[in-house]
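Final report, Chapter 2: Outcomes

The project's central promise was a pipeline that accepts a single protein chain and returns its three-dimensional structure in a standardized token representation, suitable for archiving and comparison. That pipeline is now operational. To close this chapter, we reproduce one record exactly as it appears in the project archive, with the input sequence first and the structure output second.
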Amino acid sequence: MQRTTLFVIGIFAIILLAVAGYIVWGPHGSGVRDAATEGSSTVDYYTCPMHPSVRSDRPGICPVCGMALVKDGSALQAAMAMTAAYLPSSGVRDPMHYSPDGSRRARAVDVWAAFQHLGRHGVAALVEQCCRHAARIAAALRDAGHQVLNDVELNQVLVAFGDDARTNRIIAAVQAAGVCWCGGTRWQGRDAMRISVSSWATTDADVDQSVTSILKAAASQ
């Protein structure tokens, strides 16, 4: 019985080694890790954005991770990236430039769990709550003399505090205060503070404290 077990383990190990060897050194398309293209900057080839050692002279699939081989890196980024004025670049290699980032966290599971836990009416109440909070914030900032740029129909508020430079200084001051977090964005040719109310845990007291923090930052600038 022990010999049989060892034999099976040995065969399984050989198969794994063979598969690994094929992936790294075996032929894929017309050649992966082709010696003719190694070290050359003039040869036109397709490569995997996650495994640049994988190379081919024709389109195909990376044998390591299954991603599409590409020739034009900028085209890949344009197809994969989720970009918006309120999503500043990290300045480092961002995964969303190389793969469909919207699928990375299986976000559909979050939606399913919310409906299972809250039910249809509970989700509707959550949306209404976030929209109501956003409307309160917009009204308070507008009453204080600041310019709300958008029609606040949902949970987003865009506000400007004069010129772009002052708006950005106030955004930085609000973030430094740490009471709430408001990012920057670009809206119809102007820099703006973007306030997004999206948490079930946000209360009326949180809204009051956030407005106070924003107005304090505005007064300091």
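Archive annotation: The chain is about 45% helix and 10% strand.
This record, like all others produced under the grant, will remain available to the consortium after the project formally closes.
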